[in-house]
Each structure stands twice: as structure tokens, then as C-alpha cells.
Amino acid sequence: MNGRTPLYLTLLGAALLLVALVVLQPYSVTSPWGVYSRPAQRFLQAALRGDSLALAQQSGSVEPVVWALAAARRHPDSLAPWAKDAEAWTGGRWGDTAEVVLQTSAEVCRDHPIWIRFVGSGENARVLRVSSTCFEPR
Q1: pTM, whole model, 2 decimals?
Q2: Strands (DSSP E) along the chain, which ranges?
């Protein structure tokens, strides 16, 4: 044995541990709320574009459309980061209805999340209600 054997064994052990961590991915849990992130982003993006037709198609009533257009008109710079990368963080589900809390990595309105109530899920999710104290009239 030469003096480098312990070094090679240590490097081999570290490489094997790294491969095991990547393959096994301990503690990785898929959020049940993730299916609502993309519909929420699409809804907020339509609001920023002022696309009332797209908002109506994604909504189950007129109230979310009115809220979204007003929020985009009053606070376009604040709403933009939410439309870009909002993620459904947590929520609650009752039958086919889910209420989710959105979060974003942006500093804008970080302490005032957006709450969205959906009916359905995935691409078929429709917005029933949306609110955030950050985007309310002042």
C-alpha cells in the first residue's frame, strides 16, 4: 500500500455517497398543491395583459376577473413577479374545490400572499375566488 490509498478510498466513498443521494433523493416529497401553480400563473399573466376573455375562460365567476383586472391596473409592477413565478405553497381541499396560498421568491408583497380558490385541478382548474391584501385598493 502506498500513502495515497486512504485518499483514494475517501474520494471513492464520497463519490458513492453523492451518487446514492442523487439516486435515492431522501426526503423529496412532491407537493399536492403544485398542480395549481401553472393555472395560477396563467391567470395572473392574463390579468397583466388585460385579457378579459382569457380571464373569463379561466374563471368560474365574474368576481375573479374583476379582481385580477383591477389588481393589474393598480399594481402592474407588483403583480408581475407573481405572474412569472408564483408557486402554490399550501392549501386545503374540499371535494373538487381547493384553496391554495401562492408564494414567490420576489420581495414584492412577500408578507401578503395571494389566495386562490379553484374548482377542478391541473389544466382544467378554474378560479372561483382570488384575494390578497397587497393588491386591494388603498
Answers
A1: 0.77
A2: 87-94, 97-103, 114-119, 126-131
